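Figure S7 source data.
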Amino acid sequence: MQIQILPSLLAADLANLGAEIRRVADAGADALHLDIMDGHFVPNLSFAPDTSALCKRYLPEGFPINTHLMMTNPDAYAERFIEKGSATIQYHLEMREQIDIHTLATQIHAKGARVGLVLNPDTPAEVATPYLDCADEILCMTVFPGYGGQSFIADVLPKITTLRRLNPTLDIMVDGGVNFETAEQAAAAGANAFVAGSFLFKQIDMAAAIAELRARCTAAFATA
Ligand code: DX5
Ligand code: ZN
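Tokens for the predicted zinc ion complex:
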């Protein structure tokens, strides 16, 4: 499977946002991860649809923006993010009783974007099984969402293995506390896509770090 590395803009130097966005593409990342927080689903605020348009301005043509909606009402915003250039919309299965997961996936696909379904660290794999038919990727949070710079929760690893066994070709992404060591653990469990915020943006040479992360994850994934 294709190993994907996605730097999270949340950890960028916001005083130099244009240069930081360019740095992600120049460093050989596969996509940019854009974290959207609503102050309800998570106790924090971050970016808005216009941030997706801003990213697009500084990224090369066709470079994907992967937008993670940490919101109670992702259905009210998904289309706006797609119109502003997001290629993938990720939303949380914890909201499955409030929003229709399948209907939103259909709407996102109709707009030409990919669907990512997200599980918090304490949401079991079984919650995702009724929805795997409409997901292009599953994102397993390895921290409780809301803040960058938290520690990787290794208890999530068996869930990744369960999901990988259910579907050998699905993109399984991890997000939160990712560094060389934790990414290797997640890859060995069956993850093939890795969001990393603080770890990548603190690097002086982001390209070298992405190359090493990719090499380590490729080797570890082969053992999964
Ligand atoms: C957490 C966000 C993550 C965050 C990861 O709420 O969804 O994408 O940016 O940051 P690090 O890699 O620093 O844990
Ligand atoms: Zn995220």
